[in-house]
Amino acid sequence: FRMFLLFVLVASSALVMAEEDPQGAWLLASKNPQSVYGVETMDYVVEYGLYNVGDRPATKITLDDRNSYPTQYFEAVRGMLQVNVERLNPGENFTHVVVLRPVHPGLFNFTAAQITYRPDVGSNDIRVGLTTTPGEAYVYRLSEYERRFASKFNNFFVFFLMIAPFTLGSFLLYVNSMRKHVVDEPTAAAKKTTKAH
């Protein structure tokens, strides 16, 4: 919900700026973690989005998020934390996905990524903006994540295998005892035969 509010805030500020200066490209930028939890040695997916709400194409666009994910704490598995886009026409959007792998657990502040672009073809002006900010997030140790959030199916399966011999053995002893000590009730035909004698 916070990310949605931040996106709305950025969008409204961009529209206000666009009303003051309607000429040129204006980019709205978002940054959204797609993974629910950050876990060491497991993939952590981040999606970036750019949308041109201006009336001109944005050119020479650079998206840079290297400050949020330093190389000593995160390994880039797929995608790059700095990407260049040559052109984004009015009304077009651009999506970029990065797959990271946290190396160390701990609390991290995932700040906004920076975008720079030129507001028109051949323009020498450079506009600078920021994406939405996910904020602080905790990267769990693998063992802690498995204990707290992972599926417990394997544990229940092992538990079932451990108790199965005792449960099955008790059931077989019960059935055997019932066969020896419980007398079957006579059927209706047998009752008539007994009365006739």
UniProtKB/TrEMBL annotation:
Keywords: Membrane, Signal, Transmembrane, Transmembrane helix
GO annotations of cellular component type: endoplasmic reticulum
One Pfam family it belongs to: TRAP_beta
Transferase is among the record's keywords: no
KW Iron-sulfur (keyword) present: no
Region forming the signal peptide: 1-18
Superkingdom: Eukaryota
Transmembrane spans: 156-175
Protein's name according to its UniProt entry: Translocon-associated protein subunit beta
Organism, scientific name: Pristionchus fissidentatus
